[in-house]
Design a protein that fits this description.
Blueprint: E1 9-13, H1 16-28, E2 34-38, E3 44-46, E4 49-51, H2 53-63, H3 80-87, H4 98-112, H5 117-127, E5 133-136, E6 143-148, E7 152-155, H6 156-162, E8 169-175, H7 184-191, E9 195-198, H8 203-212, H9 216-221, E10 226-230, E11 233-234, E12 237-238, H10 243-249, H11 256-262, E13 269-273, E14 287-290, H12 297-312
Parallel strand pairs: 1-2, 1-9, 2-5, 9-10, 10-13, 13-14
Antiparallel strand pairs: 3-4, 6-7, 6-8, 11-12
Helix pairs in contact: 1-2, 1-12, 4-5
């Protein structure tokens, strides 16, 4: 396998699905050649704490401390703080681990002291001995809002965690997107990247908020490197989570053709699973068909390597 390890690579990632491929890429690329642009539209405030679920998932995965059973949270973490909240009569619907809590406490405190979310994120990563660059797409507020048939408008975590993504989605939008500024570091990283990988993250919940930040689409369209997306669908179904359900509810097609259409104008290539080989094709976008299920570390590194080789060989 020919690896283009002198290439500069940027990954666009959400949480669990994105973090799997990010892990593989980080094993193959030197930290100064690899940047991750992270989603902040899942961020929310709880008990005064600033929680960034997707940034944390990527960070814990890179640090090797993520809970392997869930992909998010910290392995071996306990939930005593939640028990105490229950003792006070609270209904703690969002799972905060005791160790995990330290991350939210420090992030909140450092933000309060005037650091940007980008600075806070780097400081947390270095604290966990991770040298990779994980850049929030913006340092400004950005929040996914979900209009549901059953409950009207819900904040993202209420929809996703509290209601376990069961309500029917009528409309999604990203509050704050018009005012949000693409961070300079993100703009620079994308501007100098040889390869941009859209991870197999939820297109409508994890990648769309990145694309909604003004300047992001233009920066991608003006890229000098290649941009490839990895499908989060295997056999026409999401590996996990609501991607397929929501996309259907929004009238979007679940197929290579549907994804290529969703990312129209941005892709030089699309990576799909063997199981989707016979689905409507990606309309002129070159396709790499491979095994995209990443369960073990080896599978994550293998897929990352295949993608880099494919892009390096001219797509
Ligand atoms: P979230 O923020 O935690 O929901 O995570 P992401 O948005 O980054 O990823 C969610 C998506 O990852 C889902 O749509 C899954 O189908 C996809 N996914 C999870 N594991 C895998 C995998 O092993 N292979 C592929 N191709 N997709 C995966
Ligand atoms: Ca997420």
């Amino acid at each position: 396998m020919v690896l283009i390890t002198d290439a500069k690579v940027v990954a666009l990632a959400g949480g669990v699905g994105g973090a799997k491929l990010v892990y593989g890429l980080a094993k193959l690329l030197p930290p100064d050649h690899f940047t991750i642009v992270g989603n902040v539209a899942d961020d929310f405030e709880l008990y005064g704490l600033h929680i960034s679920p997707d940034l944390d998932t990527v960070m814990y995965t890179l640090a090797g401390v993520a809970n392997p059973a869930t992909g998010w949270g910290i392995k071996g973490d306990t939930r005593q703080m939640l028990e105490m909240l229950r003792a006070y009569g609270e209904d703690p619907w969002f799972g905060l681990g005791d160790r995990d809590l330290a991350t939210h406490l420090l992030r909140t405190e450092w933000l309060r002291q005037g650091m940007t979310l980008s600075e806070v994120t780097t400081r947390l990563l270095r604290g966990l001995d991770v040298q990779s660059w994980l850049l929030p797409v913006t340092d400004d507020p950005l929040a996914t809002m979900v209009e549901t048939v059953e409950y009207g408008v819900l904040g993202f975590q209420e929809y996703f965690v509290r209601h376990r993504w069961q309500p029917t989605v009528r409309r999604l939008w990203f509050e704050g997107a018009e005012q949000a500024r693409l961070s300079d570091a993100v703009r620079d990283a994308l501007g100098t990247a040889d390869v941009i990988v859209m991870c197999p993250s939820n297109p409508v919940l994890s990648i769309a908020p990145l694309l909604a930040v003004p300047g992001m689409r233009e920066t991608l369209a003006a890229r000098r490197g290649k941009c490839v997306a990895v499908s989060p669908f295997i056999g026409g179904k999401a590996v996990k989570g609501p991607a397929e359900k929501i996309m259907r509810e929004m009238g979007l097609e679940i197929s290579p053709r549907g994804l290529a259409g969703y990312y129209a104008g941005l892709l030089d290539g699309l990576v799909i699973d063997e199981a989707d080989r016979d689905q409507p094709s990606a309309d002129g976008v070159p396709v790499l068909v491979t095994n995209t299920l990443m369960q073990s570390s080896e599978e994550k590194v293998r897929l990352a390597g295949e993608i880099l080789s494919w892009v390096g060989s001219g797509t």
